[in-house]
Automatic annotation (TrEMBL):
Boundaries of every Major facilitator superfamily (MFS) profile domain copy: 13-396
Name recorded for this polypeptide: Major facilitator superfamily (MFS) profile domain-containing protein
GO cellular component: plasma membrane
Membrane-topology annotation of the record: Multi-pass membrane protein
Amino acid sequence: MNKPRIFSYENLVVLLMGAAFGFVFFDRLALNFLAPFFVPELNLNNSQVGLLAAGLALTWALSGYAVGRLSDYLQNRKPLLVCAIVIFSVCSVGSGLANSFLALLAARLVMGLAEGPVLPIAQSIMAAESSEHRRGFNQGVVQNFLSSLLSSFAAPLALVAIGESYGWRNAFYVAAVPGLVVAALIGMFIREPSSVTQRFSRDRIRLTTMLKHRNIWVCAIVSCLMVPWLLVQVTFLPLYLVQTRGLSPAAMSIALAAIGIATAASSIVVPALSDRFGRRPVLSLFAFVGAIAPAATVTFEGPLPLMVVTLGIGYFAAGTFSLFMATVPSETIPPAYAASALGFIMGIGELVGGVAGPALAGIAADALGPSSPMWIAAALCTAAGLVCLMLQETAPRVLDRTKRVIAGSAA
């Protein structure tokens, strides 16, 4: 008797790749959720908080592209993925041991080196193991759904509670444990994607060759705009809600967890809509929607629950990340080079947007006021929505529908 479809190997890959990237962001965002605790103790200002996020983004970008290319060349993705997960988990302990800005920055730089390769390698494995009609859905779950549940919902509730009861250092120590468990599970149950290993050579692809594909450079530009849209908000929103809006750390954690639920829902809804209606229109629409969140953070004067709902609507833009970082590139370029393309798009977004975005937003917050980062975020996603209109459609269902229409017209 055949096993039920829910227990397929494809679904196992979705679960473990999603958990891997989920705990990447769990550890990465721990810094932001715990900021109200360690910022006063270490006497940090907004510029330094921005630099902590920017430093991690810098090393994340460099290692994401470099190790992504290495995994394409070696065609041996699983060991690299397991090693990366183990290293970034251990680095969370280093964050908890830090007693100064420089020590904390050093820990985040090393963490970025380990975390950068996880997404391009995980998504290249997912692309190889996905059914064609489920590619957008699978990659959305990997990049957004589980990461949102783990990092945007569970992390603020768990880490803030631990920080309040046992101190922020112990919260960082606890954050290291889940990644080690996921690394062990991947080592036991995930196999190297044979479809890629057997069908393609180990030739490297030049960056100039990748950039001849319009979708690759368009997605890279979108990444440079949407990555800082997200990172600027996750870096400064906890501090803004506590220091400017007057929420307690506990209330802040509940508000962010509620937003995390909306972000998780977006990872199902947005890629599924793109499978049906096309990557380009859905990407553009939800990038524009992203302006709602930062604008409402500053201007909304109603009750907190209604404000959280409004922010949640804006955070549906997070569902676009798997599309421009994974689905569209993997449908544009040969699978053997998927990790290189994904690493480049993620890396350039982190390098340009992830480094400059939080750093400049922190400087703006100190110079112009705490609401400045939110207005910067609103402008970034509006620009991204316009750039998305330049994409060439890649959704298989939409392309098949177009071919049938053309064939019918020709007949």
